[in-house]
Structure formats: C-alpha cells, structure tokens
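call fold(seq) -> tokens
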Amino acid sequence: LEVKAMAGLAASPPLQNPAANALVGITRPEIAPGALTPAHAVAEFTRKRKIEEMWIYRDSMVTDEEVVEAQARHVQALADLNPGVVPATLDQLQALLTPIRTSLVNLNDNVESLKHKVESLDHKVDAINENSKTFQRNSQSMRMSGGNNELWRPTKTSAGFAAAPPLPEMAPPGGPPAAVQQVFDAPAPPPGLRTLPPAALSFPATAGQTISRAELGYLARWYNDEFGIVAGYNHDEQMKKFRDFLCGM
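ret:
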C-alpha cells in the first residue's frame, strides 16, 4: 500500500470493538481524490488520537493494527494536502511510527504499573485498618483473667513468605509436616483484607493457649514477620512477643 498525494481516502474500516466503533468521529466517510480539505485532515487526526488513547488507557478496546491504520489514514490525509512532503510508501511510514509506538507502549506499561501499585497500596491500607480492630479485640482478651478469651487472627500485611523462622531452633529437624510444607510451596497470598493464616498453621484459639516453637515459626514465616523474637529468647519469651504482635505492639 502506497501513500500517494491526491489519492483520497477510502471509508474507514469498522473497529472490532462495537463500543469503540460507536464513538463520535471514529467512523469516517470516503473522500474522493482531490476533494480532501484541511478539515478532513483534522478529523483524521482527531480519530487517530481517540484510537491511540483507547489503546493506551483502555485495555482490549482497539488492536495494534487498528492504531497503525488510523495513523496511516492521517498521514494519507496530509499527503493529499502536502504533495511530495509525506513518505512515499507505507514501509517508510511504519519506520517513522515505530519510535512513536514504542513510546506509547512504554507509557501504557508505566500506567499499568502505577495502577497495580495503587491497588496494592489500597489493599494494604484496608488490611492495616482491619487489623487495628483485631488488635483492640486481642488486647481486651489479654487483659481479661482466666486466659480463655478468644483471639483473632490479624490480616497479612507483609508481602511474601519468610525463608526461615526467626531463630534456627524454631525449625524442626525433620522439616515441616506435609500440610505445612504445601502452604509454603504455594505462592504467598498478597496482603489484603481478610488474608488470614490457613488451617494448616496452628494458631492459639485463646489468650492462654500456647503453641510449639515450630508452630510459632510457621506463623512468623507466613506473616513474614519475626514478631520481635531475637536470639536468646526462650519459649515463654517467644510467646510473649507473639502475643504482643497480636495486640499490635
């Protein structure tokens, strides 16, 4: 396909997406050779911009080929108005458009990356807000006598799993049970509202209940949080730090 001066324009092909095709200015009529005016060229430019914007900001609204077609129509319109100035072949046109398309791709990738970061941040904020209520409930349970008051599991707020428990001695010699190992073999769930430890990981049901060092280590790995446990802490001290974590301390 050659881009020729005074060639006119065929009617624009319909876009594959009906919603995109229905937008004002997307459907363009045939323009006979020699009949193209500056107003027609402006209309083709406007159509091109609309299609490019749909390609950048609205996934799947238009295809790469439809973007290139719109850009080619605009160049053909310019060729009619400026004979001898516009590239003679579509191959030359594609060479000129390549850096533009690369810039559009990069812009689209940046927009998508920003959207994912904002969504991830929103989920983390939701989780932190939910945990503030959980911490209050657990603090009340800890203050009540008897140790039989229910504990609530906080939502996960740190991405990923820790590779190991806070202390080497918290890892059992034979490795975790199969059900626990399956949890850590799977992808870590993203932090967010109601992302809670699975049933395979033991969790103290009440304020007075104690879990083993290994079970405590599994929870530390799942939350990706050392709970403030450091070398030299015995089991009782480790549980105290874990209970502090459950209260937001």
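The longest helix spans residues 90-143.
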